[in-house]
Design brief:
Elements (H helix, E strand, L loop, with lengths): L8 E4 H6 L1 H8 L4 E5 L2 E6 L2 H23 L13
Parallel strand pairs: 1-2
Antiparallel strand pairs: 2-3
Length: 82
């Protein structure tokens, strides 16, 4: 069975072990698929991309909470009361 590689570039685990910094630099900020026996086993992504991904996931979760609560009764509060 073939596994899809969800990155434009890939590297073997042995290449990654030899020089991880070089792999990260060569990726130029894009994800890299880490392959073991030509099968993707992990993805290496830049920290900034990871942070953006987590922010988007949090936004999706918050949007779901908003949709769930849309029909609830509103309660008025004053900031001074908090």
């Amino acid at each position: 069975m073939l596994d899809p590689i969800l990155a434009a570039t890939s590297v073997s685990i042995s290449q990654l072990k030899k020089n991880p910094s070089a792999v990260i630099e060569a990726a130029e900020g894009f994800p890299v698929a880490v392959l073991n026996h030509n099968t993707p086993t992990a993805y290496l992504i830049p920290a900034k991309a990871w942070e953006e991904l987590i922010d988007r996931l949090e936004d999706i979760e918050l949007a779901e909470i908003v949709r769930e609560r849309q029909g609830e009764k509103r309660v008025r509060v004053r900031l001074e009361d908090l």
